[in-house]
Amino acid sequence: MPSSRMPKLMAEKKEVVQWIEKNGGVSTPAAVYFKNERGWKISEAQVRYWWKQRTAIKAARALRSRLSGASAKPRLSEIEDILFDQVLFRRSAKAKVSRDWIRDAGQRLAASELGDADFVASACWVNGFMRRYGLSLRRTTNLTVLTDDVLTDRAVSFLSYLTSRIDGLSDDHTILVDETAVYLEDPRRQTVDQVGARHVVLKSTGFASMRVTAVLAVTATGRKLPPLVVWNGAKQDGKIECYCNVYVVNQPKAWVDSALRTRWLDLVFPPIFDTCTQGKALVWDSMRTHISKMLKAWCAAKGVQMFVIPGGLTPYVQAEYLDLQVVQGQTVAHH
Fold it and tell me: So what's the pLDDT on residue 101?
């Protein structure tokens, strides 16, 4: 139950100090006097604290309610560094750290290091601890975790392989391919609104979770090629339809398997991948269907070189390759 005690202004605290000075310099009777005579809700501990701080109270402005620098100090100031080290150790081991874990660890440290078994580790304290040490809740990323040595070795090997073959490629017949999920509605349920708003409502079509898979392609000259849109549904007759230069097909779970990919390449790019054409190449990431036996056999039959971005290097090697070697600043994605 919240306390009904009201904070006292410095003018009132000055009055208490003056009363104590006039009555023998003993603080204890002052609490009884002001409770009975003035109806104040104060404790003897408060009065003793005011008397101890009498010099600062006399010098303070009358309308202030607190002394400068008198705010509460972090209760675990002596051992918060230990807790922060534990957080860093767990994260270095890729272990999850939650606010509840910080609260529980703070309580354990308070009991073991300070002998304080009553420390609550409130949400307010957790907020303060995270703010003081620059911590925040983060979403996990889906990048492949590689050590610096492995990352460097893969990058050097791939660029060495690419450099020795890039001069024999034709920009018009080198295709970069990628897939992305396209949602029919923004699935995020967050928006900017006024502080304290009781109702935060967003319009919805009811299709927030519905998505299609878009297979995007561009040549090394920067020319966008007709995309493939894959809807979630039964295969039906498996026919790929064309609408306004966009190819559309139904697949269970909107997945793009090796068979569908080879059908799309045969349908859309026969002039590019003609057997008489020299310098043909496909560039894409290391998704499992990109390196399947079916696709490797298809590339071998067509005389198409396959360049697969090694796992973990897509945000580094592919981005720089596209920017500097391929489209020279033009965007590749059809978002």
Answer: 93
- Residue 260: partners with Cβ closer than 8 Å, 6 or more residues away: 230, 249, 251
**Predicted pLDDT at 236:** 62
CA distance 326 to 332: 10
Which stretches in the chain have pLDDT values below 50?
A: 1-5, 72-74, 319-335
The pLDDT, as a whole number, for residue 331 is 35
Regarding whether 265 and 221 lie in a shared domain, the answer is yes
Q: For tokens 């067509």, name the residue.
A: 302
What's residue 212's pLDDT?
86
pLDDT at residue 153, as a whole number: 86
**In terms of domains, do 182 and 33 share one?**
no
State residue 42's pLDDT score.
Answer: 76
* b/e burial code for range 103-118 (CB count within 10 A of at least 16 → b): bebbbebbeeeeeeee
**pLDDT at position 98:** 92
Question: Does some domain include residue 301?
Answer: yes
Enter the pTM of the model.
0.51
161 shares its domain with 286: yes
Asked if 239 and 249 touch (Cβ cutoff 8 Å), the reply is: yes
